[in-house]
DNA sequence: TTGGCACGTAAGCAATCACTTACGTATATT
DNA sequence: AATATACGTAAGTGATTGCTTACGTGCCAA
């Protein structure tokens, strides 16, 4: 049975702590149990559980029971709100994405040179 | 004289508060004074100043004195750390970028520099 | 059944956060 | 000079964070 969150705290708050971002990074590789995650941190295992609870409540992870283990699974779709907010600022510093957007909108596919780098200001 | 931050708190922490994200949104339109910003919030003006201090310390804004005003200016480049961290997860939910990556890999027959991010691990 | 393992939760605590009001300082106006 | 404006800072406060240790529950193995 997959358990999802009931509350709805902020994703921005959830990712504000370095340890929680590290946990997400680890879960991006593969699902992991609490003990497997705790092995990467100096804090106590209950502390890891508390961070996981925050991630669970934010919807960024789900948990699944396997015997006496609980494997945590990344739900990267929940990062969409961060991406969407950040997208407003991309035009300021990401020429490449802007060009990609133009390229995709055009969809002419005659221009075969989307791989140019330019940090022009 | 443009004043930049001396300390170096986390950008992730700076953007974790909704009010501070809103301030950045407002500064993305144009530079603004503290009073101009405070007009968009219910909190007191000193509270706005305190939030601006956090943004200043994170490097997300700079301040510039103009007479008795202080105009705050967005420094969107400081959001790069957020973008870079988020980029690791794009392959999970951004079909467009994934297609671009596939496209670039497919057209990589020559010795051209790949401009897609290496999503290794 | 008995014991051990994996995990969540409760309780407690120091530190930090997010606000308030009060006040100080520099600049502009008259 | 006197006053008003724009702003930062100090001090105080209640709420929250991030950790710890202690303990309870559920599952598995001997």
Describe the structure.
The structure is a homodimer of 121-residue chains. The first copy, chain A, has 121 residues and is an alpha+beta fold. Chain A is 50% helix and 13% strand. Chain A is built from 6 helices and 4 strands, in the order E-H-H-E-H-H-E-E-H-H. The first copy, chain A, has helices spanning 11-14, 18-29, 34-38, 45-58, 80-93, 95-106, and strands at 2-3, 32-33, 61-66, 69-74. Chain A has a 4-stranded antiparallel beta sheet. The radius of gyration of chain A is 19 Å and the shape is elongated. The N and C termini of chain A lie far apart (52 Å). Chains A and B meet through helix 2, helix 5 and helix 6 of A and helix 2, helix 5 and helix 6 of B. The structure holds a DNA duplex (30 and 30 nucleotides).
Radius of gyration based on Cα positions of chain A: 19 Å
Shape of chain A: elongated
Low-confidence stretches of chain A: 109-121
State the helicity of chain A in percent bands.
40-55%
Question: What is the topology, as strand order, of the major beta sheet of chain A?
Answer: 1-3-4-2
**Largest interface (C-beta under 8 Å):** A-B, 34 and 35 residues
- Major β-sheet profile of chain A: 4 strands, antiparallel
Order of helices and strands of chain A: EHHEHHEEHH
Q: What structural category characterises the helix and strand content of chain A?
A: alpha+beta
Ends apart, CA distance between termini of chain A: 52 Å
Number of helices of chain A: 6
Mean pLDDT metric of chain A: 83
Number of strands of chain A: 4
| Beta fraction of chain A | 5-15%
**Oligomer kind:** homodimer
